Amino acid sequence: MNDQVISLRSLQEYIKGTDYAPDQKLHYFYKLVEEIGELSEVIRKNRRIKDTGHIKGTIEEELYDVLYYIAALANVYDIDLEECFRLKEEINKAKWNK
Ligand SMILES: [Mg+2]
């Protein structure tokens, strides 16, 4: 990917081009849970790029990993996250009067 604006749809397409195995749905789900665990650890340790000077072992890295597996999981279920976002936002706006 280059420096252009990244939409949820383009992110999904990009990941689909390199990592897409519809028969491995549980694998993607387990990886997502694993990455959420890693995110939990770096949040507990408050590890940030601005302090370490690199992305490895930071909240930034683990947020990327979680986003990656959310997109990969959506792909193997043939789910459009942008559509989900719009549909759920409508519900939230009505529910929370936003
Ligand atoms: Mg990770």
Can you describe what's shown?
The protein has a single domain, classed as Helix Hairpins (Orthogonal Bundle), CATH 1.10.287.1080. It has 5 helices and no strands. α1 packs across α4 and α2 packs antiparallel against α4. It is globular, with a radius of gyration of 16 Å. It has 98 residues and is mainly α. The N and C termini lie far apart (34 Å). The chain binds magnesium ion.
Structurally, the number of domains stands at 1
Tell me, what is the CATH class?
A: Mainly Alpha
Give the low-confidence spans. none
CATH homologous superfamily caption: MazG-like
Small molecules bound: magnesium ion
Domain NTP pyrophosphohydrolase MazG-like: 29-86
Protein name: NTP pyrophosphohydrolase MazG-like domain-containing protein
InterPro entries: MazG-like_dom
Organism: Paenibacillus antri
Main attributes?
98 residues; Helix Hairpins; binds magnesium ion; mainly alpha; NTP pyrophosphohydrolase MazG-like domain-containing protein; 69% helix
SSE blueprint:
Elements lengths: L7 H9 L8 H21 L3 H4 L6 H18 L4 H16 L2
Helix pairs in contact: 1-4, 2-4
The structure holds magnesium ion (MG).
Magnesium ion binds next to helix 2 and helix 4.
Short description:
The chain is mainly alpha-helical and 98 residues long.
